[in-house]
Design goal:
about 110 residues, 5-stranded antiparallel β-sheet
Length: about 110
Amino acid sequence: NKATMMMNVKDSFATELRTLNQTTVSHVADGYSIIEKAVPRNFIGKTIVDLKFRNTFGLEILMIKQRASILADEGQDKIVIPNLSYKFDQNDFLVLFGSDEKISEFQKQFN
């Protein structure tokens, strides 16, 4: 039934998001992945619009995990679904979705 299928998809997605803490990249479909990455320093104080994020990098920002501080436990993260005017902060972690090629390019550029 449709409700059961939706629950299975949500459970699978939630499992993949939890594994991001243990792996750099989580593959979700052939040629597509999700990655969690600390916000690059040159993003701090800029908005998604300022960076023209989707056009520049070809990736979607699924969410942003805000850590209270570098020393804070991951369980204390605040999850934000950003709008285009969201300003990046030094304690942000980007959760990105896109093609493996675009994710690889992003990692090379910001490692």
